[in-house]
Amino acid sequence: MGYLRLLRQGRVAALWAAQLLAVVGGRLYALAVMWLVWQATGSAFLMGLVAVLESIPYILVGAFGRRLTGRLATWGRLALVQLAYAAVVASVPPAWALLDTWARVAATQQAADVTAHLRVALLLVVALLVGTASSLLEPLLPALAPSLVDGDRVRPLMGLLDLAGRLARILGPGAAGALLLVVNEVGFYGATAVGFLVSALVIAGLGRAPAHRERTRDGPGHACGPLPADHPAPPPPPTLRSRLPPQPLHPGATAAGWRILVRSHPSVAVAVVLNGAGQLAGTASAVGLPILLSTVHEEGLGVYGALTALAAVGAVAGNLTVGNLRPRGPWLPVFCAAWAVAGLLLAAMGLSPTVGVLAVVMVLSGAATPWASVTLQVSIADRFPMAERVAVLSAHHMVVRLCGTAGMLVVPLLVDADPPTGLALTGLALVAAALAAGVLGRRIPETAPEG
């Protein structure tokens, strides 16, 4: 398997293990912050506000952060961002303890009320800072990671990074249950900080060795990551110059990720938009599944947990398949087909007559999503030099967050009124979007940028 061969490389194995630890830590943080906000306020609005505050930096970085992400696109600076992430999260337990001490010493109702407000304010500020760090880490890590391997191993590497997130969905709840035996919810922040600290140390070490050179699909000769000054990239042959993607921009360049996409690889822009549509439709499953189980199938929390676990297992299986296959033919039809299948399965989720059928649908639905995510990540890694890749991935994450937020505002209204119909209509709309993207992507030629 391609994964096993990659994991024999020490740097790749270290990065993947550190990334898995960090992602599991992120799941613990997400569980802790929502629980603590609800415990302190009982307000669903403030819980939603946490999600909004974490999403705002993604939108700002994707729209205006090209200069910043360009300057941070080295392993050493990425490690500093991860270290800052760890420091922010680690500040919560001592600050929480300090507020507790002050409230006990004051021993008044007014002090207790002020402490409760300060706790909520602390959690909201931390959520904004965590969102800022994540909005930088999420595009930068997959942009820099291909520098660790040769060009023909980019696909399994992207699959490995995707697998870390899939496994975290399974390991996160288990880790939370184990930690609750020894610490309270505030202690989750400390565990998260440890994971991010280890990840920062590993990332810092990755910058000490020279980067590999990768071969893009458009031509050879592009450095995927920072190279020593005395080993400049050889110039490409004159006959290939017109086929090469744009040369890496200097950190102060102001071109946006969308401009790069539309000018040089419009089919990737179509795929990014479809990926956003998929994220929007996915909110129907997240919101609609518990409603469907309780109102239509008359099942409870235990069945809901079992079905989400089955979806996670299916996602891991799908990742192991797509990450270890050698691709043949164009990538866009595979990507669009994955989302079309996901849409059909979303519709089938709403129309499933029994819980047993629904369980099969959940496994297949989980298996379909890695085909879309890994295919897109590999396509971006193959087609863009590192500087452009950072901008494109930032734009991609901006679209995902915008669509996810819009989905949480709009789709639940459709699903809540009639869960089976809402899920079916949302799924069929995703199928239509995937088919339209496939047709449009085939008609748009890949053009070299001007200049």
Please give a structural write-up.
- The chain is an all-alpha fold and 451 residues long.
- The protein folds into two domains: 2-206, MFS general substrate transporter like domains (Growth Hormone, Chain: A, Up-down Bundle); 257-443, Growth Hormone, Chain: A (Up-down Bundle).
- Helix content is 77%, strand content 2%.
- It has helices at 2-7, 10-41, 44-64, 66-72, 75-90, 92-106, 109-144, 154-179, 187-206, 257-264, 266-295, 301-323, 332-351, 355-383, 386-417, 419-443, and strands spanning 213-216, 219-223.
- Strand 1 (213-216) and strand 2 form a beta hairpin.
- The longest helix is centred in the first third of the chain and has 36 residues, at 109-144.
- It is globular, with a radius of gyration of 23 Å.
Note the gap between the termini: 42 Å
The biggest beta sheet is recorded as: 2 strands, antiparallel
Radius of gyration (CA) equals 23 Å
Cross-sheet strand order for the largest sheet: 1-2
Helix content: over 70%
Class inferred from helices and paired strands: mainly alpha
Order of helices and strands: HHHHHHHHHEEHHHHHHH
**Model regions low in confidence, pLDDT < 50 over at least 5 residues:** 213-255, 447-451
Secondary structure: number of strands: 2
**C-alpha geometry:** globular
Label the CATH architecture of the largest domain. Answer: Up-down Bundle
- Mean pLDDT over all positions: 81
> Can you tell me the CATH class of the largest domain?
Mainly Alpha
Number of domains: 2
Count of helical regions: 16
Please name the fourth-level CATH homologous superfamily of the largest domain.
Answer: MFS general substrate transporter like domains
* Strand portion: under 5%
